[in-house]
User: Fold these one by one.
Assistant:
Number 1:
Amino acid sequence: MFSSKLGIIFSVSLYILLFYSIFDIYYTSPLTHGLSYDRPSVPGLVNNVVFIVADGLRYDKLFTEKMEHTPTLRSIVMDRGSWGFSHTRVPTESRPGHVALFAGFYEDVASVTKGWQANAVEFDSVFNRSNQVFAWGGPDVVPMFQPPDRVGDARVRIESYPHSMLDFTAENITQVDDWVVDRFSEFMTAESDLLLKTDSSGSAADGFRRGNLVFLHLSAADQMGHTQKPGSEEYTRMIQNIDANIARVLKLFEGNKQLAQETAFIFTADHGMTEWGSHGAGSLHETVTPLIVWGKHIPTPSSVADLSRASGADGLLPFNYGLKHYNVRQADLCPLIAALLGTPIPANSVGELPLDLLDVDSSLKVALIRENAQHILKQLHIKYEEQKACHYRVFFREFSKLTQNQITAMLATATSQTRNQDYSAAIETYRSIIRLSLEGLNYYHKYDRFFMGFCIVASYAVWSLMLYADMVSRHGARPSQQNGLTKSTWTSSPSTLLVFLALCFTGVLIIRSVYHRSLLRTFYQLLPLILSTILLTNSRFRLVLSRSSGHFFSAESTNEKRTGPRLGMLLLLLTVLMEFALWGFIRRPLLSFGALLLGAWPYIDVSFIVLSNRQTLQRLWLAACLVLAVFPTLPVVGSFSSPTLVLISSVCVSAASYVFLQKRCESKPPHFWSTEPHFILVVGALVSGVLVFLVRCLVALSAPIPLLIHVISWILLVASPAVAMVSADLTVSRKLVSLTLAFFIPFNLMNVFYEGAFFFVLTTVAFMWSWFESGLEFHEFFGLRLASDASALPPVTGEHTCIDRANLRQPFFYVFLVIYSFFGTGNIASINTFDPVSVYCFMTVLNPAAMGTLLIFKMVCPIMVIGTVYALIGRVRESLRAGLSTPRRDTHHTETTILMIIANFLAVHFFAMLRDEGSWLDIGESISHYVIAMSIGLASVLLSLFGRRMLTPPTPTEPRLLTPKLK
């Protein structure tokens, strides 16, 4: 199918379409559009809300037993306000956390494909509902809340500190918090009268805006947690500085009694942090944040009668200061702000107003919770109407727990309870409506996901059958027939195909126009039918499917039958290897079992190693695979760090490369400081380890990292691949070592633990694999010189029209090693919880886009080495088969087709495991699993093209050394 341009275009287009389908099915925005605002029935409770966020602050580091480091906050908790915990949802990141706080809903999963740092919020928030907004904070958070329709509005003032202050290695990280409070202090000194102004009416033309919102974003806790970790003394001093800054804020209000009496304060964090300085996942230390509220209409401290029962009841703290504490969802703070200011709740808010945090009478609480319930019911009604309009009414199923009739009945009940002054019952009724409405929103958002998923899985199944039929029909045809095969594959029954496709296209347009369906979603439903038509209207495909494929595998040579198990048994074992790889995505230790099976392969399939010293090589291969099997059992990289181990790994890689190159040199071994490209790279690998070690030492000493280290690191990153490509005439040994070091150097500059050792062992196994697959002796294979063509190869006569063991083995081994390179260290399951220290050689100032790009490049480095080795195996194999009557491209075609079938097999598994809830770690992991699986087939083609450019067909240095040994 890859043998014609049409086939290539079709397959690539199908890959892209199936990949994009996950974002059309799983990762669509849950936001509801088209909501109208009504005038709030309850007046504002306060004129001002001061909202202070300590980015990344750990709750247990603030709420210590005596709160000895935070006297100001301790006095508030004990004497003036209420305290408790805000429970975030994963992903525990800055954007999702702040979106939940100010927009009232948890991160729009559709933004998984978008950047977040500089994007304005594309939905409603309390910033847009307030009459005046004053915000100071980090350049990565505060600017994104600029209301798009209020740009240039003098009532909105948003200011952030310079991006250069986000330096993780700065001597005084707390300067960012001081900057925020300094700017607020200047504002209060010069313009505090602005906070006395508020639009008490809030006109419809102005969106019923009321009150003033002050937002202070303190980000030192996040920076300090990443660099010095939450358990450090520096982190404790940072908390002391936060307390001192809050004391400064309070002093500014105490000087104006009128202002203080009309202000409510909320102090919390957007997310927490792990002990090793990361966040993004779902541990308690990441999802639970401190919450302290005080001011007008906020309850004062309430003693707890039963201390033993309340102490640690929620499993968070073993003490509670003898006071009642509250647990709220993070999104619930949004309707709390709206209630305090008397503004409409932001359009997409799904928060439930925490009435316990309001000190007002019961009738007012009922009015507030009623507005909250009516707001979410509006969203539910819009979702209901949208889904109803897109489906046949006879098949449409309404959310059974909250039908339209049930909504009417529950609202009537709540109204009756309010009229009878049974306020507590009315509040519970409205709360039930809110919770059921939230379930209904989720139900309608995922309404047809199962059916759409079934269509995608069916498309994969039919496509795999097409690939299989195409491969079998090619091998079943004589060489003289193969040129016509490609054409017939795409031109069989052209009139039938054209008529059918025209009918499908017409059907898509009709369904889309009548039921307002997305064009792509309609196409996904028809895709299995289209592929089935192509499959069944092709005569050769039908012939393959109608006959048993036993003859296809039974065509292996007599010699192979004598020397090992049949292809069917090998295929079963290879499938087991893939299962280990597949479940290794989720449980890394299972990859170790796959490595053990890989190590035992020469004992199972004797055609794998056909060299003279077979037994010794079997033991070496087994030993290498046993060492490789150790890494998935080690802790995930990111939880620990060891610059010493990084340096040792660099020394080992450099030394091994130098010794190997000297052993393979045909002339007098060059001096270590040779200017030849491959020896320059050997030195570069050693330098990379030294740089990492120096940077870690400087960070440990809280010393600034010199600019020279950054410059050298960037030069190594860019120059290493270029140096590897300098020489145009190299032996296989030099080229492999050069390309491996070219990828090792940037990889090593971002290492924090044992990744360098893993890279070394993985490439050793890959080198041995390429050598064994060639069937050549050590000096023959690594002495091959990369030339422009394979004309010097001695021809080998014979007919080869079946799939042999190498055809099957090589794609499976390649896929397994690609997966192993991704998950052997566990540091690329998600870039969401990475330790910024891994990129300190390149930058120390926070830059998520650049840091993410560097980490993605780090992920790619090992797989590029495996891809290069696989390309070399293919080129050697094609060259050795140059004399066969079967065209050389068919061997490549067969292995590529097998790779695509494997990729489809993995993709179907991971499509079923896709997640749109949970942490960015969970969501990103499920997407990356699916992408990796899909990429295997497509990447094999790209890597082959990549290999053809870097590894041109090899010929022997001396023709007499090469004696092709076909397997």
Number 2:
Amino acid sequence: MKIHELNIKSFGRFTDEPPMKDLNKNLVLFYGKNETGKTTIFHLIRSIFYGFSPASRDLHPYNPWEIDRIDIAAKLLLDNGVEAEVNRRLLSTPRGQLIYDSNVLELKNNPLPYVNHISTEIYEKIYSLRVEDLVQLQGKGWDEIQDKLLANYGSQLIRSTRDVIKELQDEANGLYRESGRGNFLIKKLEDEMKSLKKQRLDAINRQKEIREQQERLLCINQLIGEKNSERVRLKQLVGKAKKLTPFKALINDLKNTNQSFINKGLYEKLPINTPQKRDELQEKVNQLNTSIEDNNSMIELKENKIYRLTEEEQRILENKASINKHVKNTGSIQYLKDVVVKYREEIYQLKDRVNYESRKLLNEDLQGEVLENIKDLNISEARLLLEGHRKIKAELDEANKDYQYMSNKSLNIKVPVIYLVFAVAGIIMTLAGYGLNINFLPLAGILLAVFGGGSYITSLMLKKQLDRQAVSQEEKRSLQKKITQLQQALAEKKNDLINIYKGIPLPEIVILNMDEILLSGIIKMKDDLYQLREKSKYADEKEKLLNIELDELQRFLRTLNIEGNEESKLNQIKDQLDDLEKRVIVNNGLNEELQGLRKERSILLSKLEENTKELKDIDEKLRQLGNGEIILGLKIFKDNQKLEDRIKLIDEKLMEWSNIEELKAELEALESEDPWIFLEAKLEEAEIKIEEIEVELQSFRDEKKDIELSMEQLSKTITIDEIESQLIMLELEHEEVCIKRDRLILLAEIIKLADEEFREENQPNVLKNASQYFKLITNGKYANIYLEETDTGDSIMVREVDSLAPQAVTESFSKGTLNQLYLSLRLSLMDHLDKDSEKLPVCFDELFINWDEERLENNLKLLTEISRERQIFFFTCHDWLASKIEATFKTSRISLS
């Protein structure tokens, strides 16, 4: 059987832990430092298998105090492949469920049916191996270890069979020995029985003497009783007389006082303080009359102060909401008036500005249709047409210039001959001047020659250049065609431009040569016209609303029969309404005061009537008490009142007595039975008789005391009944000891026989299997384990592989070898206990931490062998050991924090 999932909701230090899944491994490794819950996990596994112990959450050591319940679950995989789920909870009572193959088994606190072959004590002692179990081998005898492993493994204490048999035999010898030597229990009991029989004879004689003294004591008690009864009776009579004499005097005084009352029935109907009450009522009646008069005056005064509304004022108050509404609307009306006036002024200004712009643009005032045309003018389109016209005109002018230039280049330029004449004439003049020796003439000749020659040369060069730049006729025709197209396009743009300003009296030259300033003027005029139209429309709407408000106000004023200026009348009505509201508030306050005054008057009248009636009732009763006179009635009332005070005083004295009715009954009984007791002489005689009886009683008491002292001394010795009882108890104990001794001898023989049978049946297989484990764990050093009988008892023997003779295992063996042998025998014992049943998981806690490297490797091989058929839970707090196991078993540790 393997555990492949643990779910811990609350157990010990673990609360609401995530499920521990995938535990379905051959070896499950738990790693954690000390106090992290490794021991808790083992006890959790044991609780899953066997239930809770103790089965009380108040006593259970792993009940979390902050949650106060245990809740755990596990999923199991049985050896036959069946899966099962276990749920256990410890609340006020333990609960448990086992779910398998769609079946639900209520476990309560019972063990799982799969673990019934192993008791919980065996599981805790055998299937849980800690490092402490190996350490303890150093301080124990090996014989004890042998017995634990090979015999009494099912006992909770795991005691040696030889020790148990020896203890039983020692206990039986302590009860009886065949030789008769020694101080055994049966011999001691028989000596005690002989002594008790001798004591019984002495007790019989003492019993006879005690009976005689008891008879005399009975007689004395009878005499004492009779004298006591007489003394008590006389004392009671004297006591009653002394107690009841004052009580009797009070009763007689009370009776005489009650008889002195005059017309007691009528007196009791009057108030206790009638004179004061009568004066108070008279004073109250006078005060109430005065208060009622003042109240009536105040009511009259308040009624005179109430303002009486006219019909017109009532109508104004009824229309309060409408008046307030129209008063609030006066601001709106004034606002509408101001808006209309403002917009009318702005409209007037816009009209003047439009006329000014039209005069500036067209030298005349424009009227309706022209203004509409200007207003509908598309400025963007006009601007685009104007720019298009100007662009085409510019292109046409440029084309005409190019054409003119081409025409000039094609002319036949001739060089002027005059320049050549000037040059020749200058040369002649220069020569003539030098020849004629005229000073200025050579200079003039030179200048004229230079001018003529230079101009002639320049003309020749220009002619040559123009000849080189001359264009062809084809280029001229192409340019002439472009000019024609531009002229047509210019004409179209001109028509479009004139058409867009159609309806606006602008000259054509102005339209065609319109600059940005003129266009801005048209745009401004267009904007002014748009504003003029919008503001006129808005002013008309506001004026319409104003007329509606004024008409509604006029109709409302007519309902109030008011004519005249609406606003002034409305303000007057508002002022009147405010004044009327104040008067209404005053009236309401006066009405509330009047209501309170009338209510107060009603209360005063009711009180006056009540007090007057009470006063008349008292006066009438006083007249009856005084035979028609109120003053005499008051005097009789006061006399009766004094008698009543005396009765109260007597009653107070009587109240000091408890149980008055019982005292009255006792007084009546005493007066009828023993009337003499109230006579003073008789009372003194009774007291003397009591003293004589006291003397006689004291004599009887002294004699009784002497007898009781003698009886006490005799009774201190042991009685016959006690002796008989002790004798019977000793006889019974003697019989039980004999039976117990026989049982102990029989039990020792039965245990010895059972131990021998068990060893014969189980030890061979256990030792054979343990030999295989021991050989594996010692790496083949030891071959077999034997059990050999010796004079001192059975002894475990081991044989080395290279040796023929086995040797007995003693404490002289090395610690490591003893640990390996103990582990092998323990594991073999588990296999034997699990034979033909579910193989339960085994738990190792820090088992290998003290072993050297070689033994550790061998032990890991052993664990690998065991884990093929049995799940192993390994707990350690050492990281190096956890890493070693992870590497060997290809598993991952579960860390506990």
Number 3:
Amino acid sequence: MEQTKASSPKLFVCTAIENKDEIEERYERAYVYFQSLVADCSEKEAHDALNNAVCKNHEEVSLGMLMSILTEPHNSTKCYRDLTLISRDGLTCVLNNLSNLILERYLKFQETTRNQLVWLIKEMIRNAVNGVDSVCWNLMRYASGGDITPKNIFLVESLLDVYIDSKSWLDKFPVLICMVVYTYLRLIEDHNVPHLIALRQKEVNFVIALIREHFDEILSLGRDLVRLLQNVARIPEFNQLWQDILLNPKTLSPTFTNVLQLLQTRTSRRYLQSRLTPDMERKLVFLTSQVRFGHHKKYQEWFQRQYLATPESQSLRSDMIRFIVGVIHPTNELLCSDIIPRWAVIGWLLTTCTSNVAASNAKLALFYDWLFYDPEKDNIMNIEPAILVMHHSMRSHPAVTATLLDFLCRIIPNFYPSFADKVRQGIFNSLQQIIEKRVLPNLQPLFDSPKLDRELRTTVRETFKEFCSNGEGVSGFKEEGMDDVTRGPDEPAFSDDEDDPMPIIAEDTDDDDLPLSEVRARERPELAAALPSALRPFAETLLDERTAAAATALLNACNPPMPTPTALADLFAAVLQDLPPLKISSNPSSAELDLKLSSPIFSMFDLLQSGASDSKKLISETFKEIYAQNSIPSLGYSLLFYLKVCYERDRRAERDPAKKRNVKFKMDIYKSYCSNLELKLVESLADDFEKCQECDSNVLIWLVPDVYREFKEQVQNHVRLLHIIVSTIDAGQLQRLVCLTLQGNLMMFKTDDFTTMLSTSLSWETFEQYCLWQLLTAHEISVDDVLPIIPKLSYKEHAEALTSVLLMLKQERPTPDVLRQIFCREIDDGDTFVVSTVMYWCQDYEDKVADLLAVLLSTRYPGTSPNKRKRPGKHTIPPNAPPSAELVLGHLEQIRVCCVEQDDMSIFNMECMQKALQQSQSNSSETLKRQYMDLFSLAWEDELPMLRRARKLASNSMPLNANLHSSNEDSEEEEIVKPKQAKRRKKAISDSD
């Protein structure tokens, strides 16, 4: 396989001012490596070289060949053939990297790269490569709606041709079939211009065939399939399909009854997500999770220019609204923050729409989940944005509220007349849930606002009369106080600062589409009615007082007939939901800690610790129910908090120091808690720490020493637990942990599996890594423990870890093992780690460093006689050990350049270094000799002049020679105690009169 060695081809389109990113640099390095293996080789030699290299650097070789395929059409066929021959994992590595490359950088691909990508997918499909369907899925996301530019049309048509040509392959992937149908149904809507008629007809024929052949699979698309089919209903082929759906459903599938079957099925999030490109998705997620109100306009203007500037792009608004409604489900913490809310983004999309058709489709997209809403199956987060858009727009944009209310009234009889009653019921279910879940406490101010015109108000009152009578909603939540609500100056709005306060969705913290039936009612009558009659007065007292004493009284009164665990779980969840979360000061007193135990939840822990067996069983079953409901997230870490308070209390009660030392932390209770819930101990601890840090970092830090003492076998070096801690603490809390470590009260690490933990930490944030290394330093971790990761650290990507290791090495003396590991690092002109370490050591240990460097260099050449240079065992490096000769020479060249800049070549003038340079020069290839010509030029060709040689032997070589020929006793003494040379670096602070 002969390949011409030329300048590295380009994957991406880059401007003159753009720097290469890490992805581009990675692929270029892999390409250069691949070319170095096959350049100037025959086909057989190239195959042999690739097979040898792939054993050690499988991913590097694969990426290099992938880049060659994507950028060099003339070599692609041969390169793909070779790739399939050498691949050790069925091309899994290539497919994973290709998917990531598409998701991250497709928009920057060169035209050649885009063409070759389609060619590569065709080849993989033709060869039935496993996993290529996921690549198709990811690439199809870039076939954007609302875009008829040549680049987008090329992708749309190319993928369509691939699917048509590979129909038998496509038939094997039902999920991909659904994605193809959903995507092209959406695209057909945009392809109604004259020059795309041929493409549209090809799309129509293909999609109709897929729907009819795979209708059972297509049914899983749910209600949004109907929405897309409505948009193309005027096309003859789809008109006929509609006739069959409505009138002859059995001709499509024996299991298909009518269109209601589709409309009552919620469309999966992944399909809603698929109609935005990954780039659009990232921007919308950023806008709704990171941008504060008051700073949002510039982001919206940029988004408008980037994605919504053309007439064709108006249809994208429906896709974006469906994505925001169905996929972006913020947590309650985000809802309570000053981040721009979903309803404000949707309001902006509606008010900036310039097409009547697009505006109608956008409103339908907003209300689509209302029409057949089922509380048992659907999520309240899908209906929340629409009601909040109407509510918040009433003050500053009453026209928006009016048009949405008008649309909601008209959609009931007009969506599908035969289903008018079902649409009405779906909308009523939605409004009922909105009131029950307190999204809005009352609908009357919205439905009967004086800002609405008289005709619309009449229509609304007639349509929703159940929600407009006597100023109360259907659940009886009164209107009291609604007129007294004040507005803050920074509330979100479309174009001004006036608005109502941000509502909080109580109790619905689910972000994973859990059925709403699992969110249990908390109203008092139902809670009390679920308990035995003897306990109801105690329950009423507990709901009124919300104290530990009331909870204890209730639990002590639990006698046969016992309450059900579900009833107790619901009761305690209702009691705790309005209480302040568990928080303490940074240095809590015993009085403060005892006060915290007055919360009702700790009464259950008291019973768990000292109650009768029946009571313990009831509490354990109640904990199971609470965990299943996730109704009290603080349960686990509250138990840890309780156990520590009890431990501290017991220690204070013992005055005898000996007995005080024997007080035990009752960790068995927490272990039993985990066992009862069928949880792994360490994962439960991590989950509880994660929930604790969201509530109060002081509680977390207060628990850390005891958790690491009592569960040390499970938690030491546990990466997730450690990450939670360092991602939570501030500088003061870090200092506290360091002090506890120095006092001997905290041990967070062990040497087992240390490298894995350090490698994982490299992806953490800068401050998190800083905290980790401070803790490692406090634990006096040996430099030997971090040596294995040194060759893996990138000076660009892992600056935090590399700096910390450098400072550790600064405190160490040079040794063969350390020098060997740091010289295993790849050569990079910008990486000064090796140079900095060696040059610092030279200030105190120059002769030893020179000796070690000489041994390291000499032993890289197996041809050198082993008798030429003997050293004691400590200085001997096995000849077969890394690093390679090229790496050693490369690092020595960097050291030489540094020495030249400092005008101090003494280390290279030592006899041991001279001999090593001469030996390596004589054993190096001509290529290496040319590459390191300046380095080898430091080796003297003749014997040292007598004067220089005598001086060198007196100053440097004599101790070494004496050591070589002395007894073992002398040798050991010389290595243990060695006089330091005077430092040659300048002092940072000089003493002067």
